[in-house]
Amino acid sequence: MYQVFGFFKGMSFPLASIAVYNSVVFGVFSNTQRFLSWQHCREPGASPSRTLSDLLLASMLAGVVSVGLGAPVDLIKIRLQMQTQPFQEGNLSLKSRAVALGEQPAYQGPVHCITTIVRTEGLAGLYRGASAMLLRDVPGYCLYFIPYVLLSEWITPEACAAPSPCAVWLAGGMAGAISWGTATPMDVVKSRLQADGVYLNKYKGVLDCIAQSYQKEGLKVFFRGITVNAVRGFPMSAAMFLGYELSLQAIRGDHVVTGP
């Protein structure tokens, strides 16, 4: 049974914050692109228009906001997941702090992990790997929201005012697979930077992490897990977009699914 729970190690903190994180990201995207759309209609009674540049800017802003909220969450998750295997001092070239730890876990839980990082590295320590996450999430959300909007509009018949739940589910799933698949290389770099510092410091920054990873493991290391990311991205994003759209429908009292 303990082995089964090992698959979910470090997930308590992300699960506790995922609702706030997604609601803020989706809200930033929706309100930004809606605001930009209305700026194009200056005449009274004119309908708002949505351009690709509006979607791009709204997606980029959502990506920036996601880093501000998600970097600490991802860091805590990665640090706790690093403790799934006993630490062996002989396998690594360690600093004195790591030697003192021996085989004991560095963190006893999410709260202890946060307090330890803040105490040893300051508040900036919670944003370790944020630059790599920014390089992942800004283009990642562009390839998340834009394909969703374009695919949902393409799937929806012209006679329909808004996409059906089936169209939302399918477009959201495809957008998730595209986004997570293309984000894999920078996700690898981000995860390595965030894992760095538990027992030792190996990387000086994003470029150093990329260089060391390439020298030791070759180009294929940046595509490790791409299939899993793309496969998991489909159902996860399909459910997320569908839940988001149906929630808006329920809140607004609409009878059709509305676009984000």
UniProtKB/TrEMBL annotation:
Keywords: Membrane, Mitochondrion, Repeat, Transmembrane, Transmembrane helix, Transport
Presence of keyword Transmembrane: yes
Membrane topology listed for this record: Multi-pass membrane protein
Record protein name field: Solute carrier family 25 member 48 isoform X2
Subcellular location: Mitochondrion membrane
Sequence similarity: Belongs to the mitochondrial carrier (TC 2.A.29) family.
Gene designation per UniProt: SLC25A48
Source organism phylogeny: Eukaryota, Metazoa, Chordata, Craniata, Vertebrata
Entries under PANTHER family matching the protein: MITOCHONDRIAL BASIC AMINO ACIDS TRANSPORTER-RELATED, SOLUTE CARRIER FAMILY 25 MEMBER 48
One matching Pfam family: Mito_carr
Solcar repeats: 50-154, 163-250
Mitochondrion in keyword set: yes
SUPFAM superfamilies xref list: Mitochondrial carrier
Superkingdom field: Eukaryota
